[in-house]
Amino acid sequence: MAKLKETCVPVWKQPELQLAFDPRLHKSNAHARRNPYRVLPSNYRESLCVDPVSVDAILRVYPFGLEVGTVRGEYAKNVGWSKFSAFFMWAVSIFMLVATFNMWAGSGFRVSAFLVYFVSLIAFASYFIFCFGFYFWRLATWSSLDDPVLFNQKTRMVYVLPYEKGGFFRFWKDGMHGAPVAYSWDRQIHARIYSYFYRGGGSVAEGFELGLLAVREGTNNEVERLIQLGVQSNGFDSTQLALWEHIRQYMEEDGPPLQPGDKLRATDLSRVPEFPPEIVAAAGGPALDQEAIDQLVQQKARP
Predict the structure, then answer these.
(1) Less Cβ around it within 10 Å: N or C end of the chain?
(2) What pLDDT, in 10s, does the model give residues 178-188?
(3) Rg (CA), the chain
């Protein structure tokens, strides 16, 4: 793992000084409203003084490109339980409606203000649970499992496939990825580590995520996109430091696409969108198979 005690990047925990967030992004992403835990150096020639690790975040490797997944993909890669959850939610929804109908029938179908209120409340709750079941069903069957971000070390561009969430109450509206957007690695990409608190296991824990910030073209500091890159970790941000050092070395020092012993993210790539042919061609052609990746890792592995 990364050597957190040796990192040369201090804890920040203050408001942003360099960047400003697009108002829509500030409203939709909680990290945009938080003070960053660490502000990673904008000069990517600077090492973070940690051991690089890909930490189960790499989706595909190209001859000149590295495709990294997101926090959403970390959790979506294991979707076997989602079908069970969907059927369970649907069963609960139907049970609530049937039980309410039987109770109404037992009263002789009398109508009162209380009954109308009660039936409306149960109907809404049933629909809410039904929509939750459909959310799990989409996750298990056809929704994309990850949001790939492609780092091209040859053109020094970063490509993003923006993801638009599907509807919840409008359960028939599925999430989808939009057209790819390109950003300059040298001019438009910044990295932050964000911390947040959540309740789990009866106690409050601190989580960490790596934020990839993309600045709008034609501006110096307006962030139009914040991508929660890689994986989430608890207790320490060594995982996020290790992943960013891995990406930094790949882009700046021709580092290996995976560190020795690391593996690609174990997910169903047939359900992860691919970039258009012209972007893949700029990265050297189709994604490499495991044998070619292993050879590249051995060739570029650091002593």
Answers:
(1) C
(2) 899 999 999 99
(3) 23
Alpha-carbon distance 144 to 152, whole Å? 23
DSSP annotation of 89: H
- Please say if the pLDDT value at position 35 is more than 90: yes
What DSSP string runs through the chain? ---GGG-------S--SS-EE-HHHHHH-GGGGSPPSEE--S-TTS--SS----TT-EEEE-SSEEEE-BHHHHHHT--HHHHHHHHHHHHHHHHHHHHHHHHHHHTTS---HHHHHHHHHHHHHHHHHHHHHHHHHHHHHTS-S---EEEETTTTEEEE--EEPPPSSSTT---EE---EEEETTTTEEEEEEEEEEEETTEEEEEEEEEEEEEPTT-SSEEEEEEEEEEEEES--HHHHHHHHHHHHHHHH---SS-TT-----S-GGGSPPPPHHHHHHTTSSPP-HHHHHHHHHHH---
Q: What is the pLDDT of residue 272?
A: 93
Whether pLDDT at 293 is above 70: yes
What's the pTM value of the predicted model, to 2 decimals?
Answer: 0.83
Q: What is the DSSP letter of 11?
A: -
Coil, helix or strand for 238?
Answer: helix
Q: Is the pLDDT of residue 193 over 50?
A: yes
Q: Report how far residue 17's alpha carbon sits from residue 7's, in angstroms, rounded to the nearest whole number.
A: 22
In the prediction, which pLDDT does 10 show? 93
- DSSP secondary structure string, 261-296? T-----S-GGGSPPPPHHHHHHTTSSPP-HHHHHHH
Which phi-psi region, left, alpha or beta, contains residue 49 (left: φ > 0; alpha: ψ -120 to 50)?
left
